[in-house]
């Protein structure tokens, strides 16, 4: 039993790649995510295999008209690549890539290609927080800062404004913690100002951004003013780390994603050379798309690579995912009975119908439809859950002058298609990727 507990603790504490190293060093047992299980004496650890989904799985006559519309959309919107997935009653019935994962190599975008999902990451963070609430680690009213708060000491000692001690977990979830972008802009994208204020070198990282923000006064009393805050969700990532003694990424993977069979999702990196296997390339085709490197080299770089510090975004906007990944995650928090949810009905209700009127993690709620969007340089993503059992996702690896209309136009295409569908195929592509 002690051995089983040790293995379980290691699996929960480390990311999958470090767990593999742990197994090899501690037990002399090679471990791969491709294994279906490993056995140590009478202990067997089940591992979910992952097969690559390709476009061919969705080449059905029923989807031909949708394929044509999405091809036209890629051309008219001048996108390099687009990944789309659809779930009906808990089944992944469609997932397909259009255009290129890499323009220069002319690599066809496939459903297995990972892409940055921007602020869709906030939904993942909100779910992680709600799980910790269910586990009794915190409540919505838990104090975040101050001597009695979750985060204190170290970089949090710069706080001098008493209002910070009034910030609760709920204030961070619903963007009412009291910060305002009118003060100095979005702190996640003002590296030069942070450097100047703190007299530190680039990259400043999340800790530097936190020191900068907390050393300033809080413009509004917590709970009285809504202002969409990337910074607030980055703080939620720090809360998760403090409560679990794990990295934010490690906790989300081991407590939420891996149990669902989602093994490819991970946090993105800023440098092109640090991209992971099967990650798409990002393109910003807008004018003036060069930025000073967030690494302090003095070079002008593409906004998509080193133009901003995506590692600092983390819990606010740093995740990589495929369309299938996101829909698999969504089926576990959609409130439908087709598949088990990882949160209670009470938690899902709190997220989607809070007393404050501001949802947790979701961007909007209306008449049974929940949606979440995300945008970064080279990325736009939209995830939508409808009350008729249909959920869908679309992700692109391109920014351009037309990006402002991306969500509206792709939503029109999808809804127009759904209005014409009378019956859906029986296939469930989840069954091909998770078993």
Task: Produce the secondary structure layout.
Layout: H1 2-13, H2 16-27, E1 37-40, E2 43-46, H3 64-76, E3 81-88, E4 91-102, E5 107-108, E6 115-116, H4 121-134, H5 169-173, H6 181-184, H7 191-198, H8 205-214, H9 230-244, H10 248-257, E7 266-267, E8 283-284, E9 290-292, E10 300-302, H11 310-317, E11 319-321, H12 323-331, H13 345-352, E12 364-366, E13 369-376, E14 379-385, E15 390-396, E16 398-399, H14 406-418, H15 430-433
Helix pairs in contact: 1-2, 3-14, 4-9, 4-11, 7-8, 9-11
Describe the model.
With about 425 residues, this protein is of the alpha+beta class. It is built from 15 helices and 16 strands. A hairpin with a 2-residue loop joins strand 12 and strand 13. Helix 4 packs parallel to helix 9 and helix 4 packs across helix 11. The chain starts with a helix and ends with a helix. The N terminus is likely disordered.
Helix segment tally:
15
Largest sheet: 7 strands, antiparallel
Task: Provide the residue-averaged pLDDT.
Answer: 90
Binned strand content? 15-25%
Strand order across the largest sheet: 5-4-3-15-14-13-12
* Rg over CA atoms: 22 Å
Report the count of strand segments: 16
Helix fraction, binned, reads 25-40%
Low-confidence stretches: 1-6, 11-48
